[in-house]
Write the structure tokens for this entry.
Amino acid sequence: MVKQSFLVSDPESLRALAHPIRQRILLELSVRHSARAADLAEIIGEPANAISYHLRALNKAGMLVESPELARDSRDRVWKIAHPEGVYIPPEAASTARDVFTDELTKWVNAMLNESITRDPKALQGRYLGAALLTRAEAKKMFFEVAEVFERWRKHGMDAAAKKPKDSTRIFHHAIALVGNREASSSESGASSEEVRKLIN
């Protein structure tokens, strides 16, 4: 079942999320059961001491928690995400954190639409743009069905990566679902034509 995203609006949490590396850490932990600073340093390409600093900041803000049951000894620190359902920064929370999040997401969406992302032979780049005539209730049902599929595959990837953590063929894939009405311009008639395009690269 897809859960409601965790609302982030208090100043301390917003400050903690304002750094792009911290947002990257949350994304990486959202697809893994847990990770150590050294693991994330290798994945993200930043020094382990810098990653440790960001992990502590996210922990203080309540975004991450430690998993002592997974630690090898008292000095070993293993981290997992505190809100696997994801976090949501509302539009009214004007902050650097939201700017960083929306800027990075917008860049990725534009690059996908423009087909300008470097093709990784281990990754799939797929795009589906569609339209449907639905009631509000039907659109909500469709959206949650799509979200359930995303969530099922996210959990599958987490479990598979935990079993084979060194599997180099398993890499991070972004996925996004947007459902909403199309705002008609003055040049459009009330019954606009439907366009459906599906591209799998």
